[in-house]
Amino acid sequence: MVIFGSNVFNDAVMKERLPKATYKALKKTIEEGRSLDPAVADVVATAMKDWAVEKGATHFTHWFQPMTGITAEKHDAFISPTSDGKAIMEFSGKELIKGEPDASSFPSGGLRATFEARGYTAWDCTSPAFVKDDSLCIPTAFCSYTGEALDKKTPLLRSMEAISKQALRVLRALGNTTAQKVITTVGPEQEYFLVDKKTFEQRKDLIFTGRTLFGAKPPKGQELEDHYFGSIKEKISAYMKEVDEELWKLGVSAKTKHNEVAPAQHELAPIFTTTNIATDHNQLTMDTMKKVALRHDLVCLLHEKPFAGINGSGKHNNWSMGTDDGVNLLDPGHTPHENEQFLVFLCAVIKAVDEYSDLLRVSAANPGNDHRLGANEAPPAIISIFLGDQLQDILEQIEKGGATSSKTGGLMDIGVNTLPALPKDATDRNRTSPFAFTGNKFEFRMVPSSASIAAPNYITNTIVAEVLSEVADRLEKADDVQEEVKAILVEYVTKHKRVVFNGNGYSDEWVVEAEKRGLPNLKTTVEAIKALVAEKNLAVMEKHGVLSRVEMHSRYEIELENYIKTINIEALTMIEMAKRQILPSTIKFATSLAASINTIKATGVAADLSAQIELLTEVSALSAALKKNIGVLEEAVEKASNVHGDTYEQASLFRFDVFEKMGALREVADTLETLVDKEFWPMPTYGELLFNI
Ligand code: ADP
Ligand code: MG
């Protein structure tokens, strides 16, 4: 395919355009993590610029991922004036490897005061540069003047080094002499909604918050289950095609597309790649989805819960780890009970997830996701692992003294001679599990649709690195490695089997059972955020050099502030809509009812006016309740906004007071929507938003 990667300064382009020695030196940095020689950077910069200019680029930008969760870019022209009044296109190695954006306007959680503005971006040569919108985009890490990470990429890169180091120690102890590096990989499945742009523009809530804050249930929702994998409408199909093409040019291997469960909901999945590149690519994917939608008079909603009452969106983070010589360490093979290496890595993941489930939970927490987790459409807020029959059976054998057999799937007989006999997988799937083993990878299904996948990945990498380091410590000291492996497996299975759950994660029984097992159930973002400053978590992040204590504290502050700001914006938007749109409309409607009553009475006809009178009474009572609830919400916002100094307390007030009162206001408004004449209702309804494409 000619267009694939056509806008990427990828390996093939580098090979073609860089002098041999430069190419080799750069590859060493990319593949072996050696530091980069400035002289090499100069040569690369010139080649990159020439290539980008041929692609039509006039500017370059350091492309980075601050704590806002989206990407940031500041564009500079290649242009450089010459003494004769003309200009040449220039780009130096220095400009390639280092940028200096103002750090004070990005969230730093107290790490940077406004006057301490200096921040740096540093070239991440492990993720290829690309041309987008006439700019050469250089993926970079972003840190403060004092070297603290201010972004999502830095800890991710650090975590990849950490897990590689520890996994290699384990592999060496098990006798592997060939692997030089262990790479973590991810394929994130991205869910999204598409709505008509004109309809979108009539909803202040969608414009300001990305989700509907009001909206009665339409007559039809997702109950017929007719949208999932349904035939794709032409308008949507044209959109998807263009998204695919734009992504392919950027080297993003968008592969699968289909309609999702909810009406107007869809999904895009790429082919997996290293966690670093996959994270960059997922940002590009979200960005591209939004931009292309506008070209089709659509708006792409990435919010976790744009509509109440129907499914929201998530991102399935399919995570695995493998060696640089191509061995997937989570591939069980045909006889997993004999696959010692697999069992060690599997049990390490189980232990890591059990011990640090609170960290994993917070890595998937944001205000939008609070509407999903535990709401019978997404995994519960309780972290557990699905393994399936085959592995469950092997773990039970291990616990009893040693695994001697692996169950197999066999062949499946469909009962029709002309259909092929399908080999059956050894395990079924489980859509209700937050952390499900799916053949040769784990699918972390809690991740929020709008968020960067960096945190779920750097947390997973770090906690698994920690357990692998414990395994390595033991194996390196052991006289009999085989015996020690057995001892480790028995111990890990016995101690951590509580986190394994193969049943229905959506059921109420599981909530009760999980509590008995002592598994945390951190229902809201605010509750989950505490994990960022728990001592054991600070210690593990520090030990593996992924985030220092100071950096963790700053992230804790940033997450709380983000929560507060999000709910505050939502509450203010609700108040404005209720006051200036909904209440005036209901009053107008009531007035029209009153007018009708008076007009008919004036005719002297003995008509039955009970319909108008009852409706008028009901609408007036609800309007009064609406007005009252607006006042209650205003007071709650005022009170929460006036908390100073204690961010946690303030966030708690926003969650447990403001947010609750938003729900009460919505309920009244949604009831009114079902009563008020359609002509009077001030905004498009759910029916119009979800079924008009
Ligand atoms: P399913 O339909 O089982 O969820 P797919 O095979 O379509 O799965 O995979 C879903 C995602 O998982 C895709 O993005 C795919 O590239 C990714 N994936 C497959 N193998 C791996 C792996 N070893 N590491 C990370 N992601 C993987
Ligand atoms: Mg999947």
Shape: globular
Helical fraction equals 40-55%
Q: What is the CATH-assigned architecture of the largest domain?
A: 2-Layer Sandwich
CATH homologous superfamily grouping of the largest domain = Glutamine synthetase/guanido kinase, catalytic domain
- How would you sum up the major sheet? 9 strands, mixed
Q: Which segments are poorly predicted (pLDDT under 50) over 5 or more consecutive residues?
A: none
Could you say how many structural domains there are in total?
3
How many angstroms separate the termini?
31 Å
Mean pLDDT score: 94
Q: What class, by secondary structure content?
A: alpha+beta
Strands, count: 19
Tally of helical segments: 21
In words, what does this structure look like?
The protein is α+β, with helices and mostly antiparallel strands and 693 residues long. The chain is built from 21 helices and 19 strands. It folds into three domains: 141 residues, Glutamine synthetase, N-terminal domain (Ubiquitin-like (UB roll)), CATH 3.10.20.70; 355 residues, 2-Layer Sandwich (Creatine Kinase, Chain A, domain 2); 129 residues, Up-down Bundle (Four Helix Bundle (Hemerythrin (Met), subunit A)), CATH 1.20.120.1560. Helix 8 crosses helix 9 and helix 10 packs across helix 13. The strands form four sheets. Strands 9, 10, 11, 12, 13, 14, 15, 18 and 19 form a nine-stranded mixed beta sheet that branches. It starts with 10 loop residues before the first helix and ends with a helix. The mean pLDDT is 94. The chain is globular, with a radius of gyration of 28 Å. The site of magnesium ion has 3 residues, from loops.
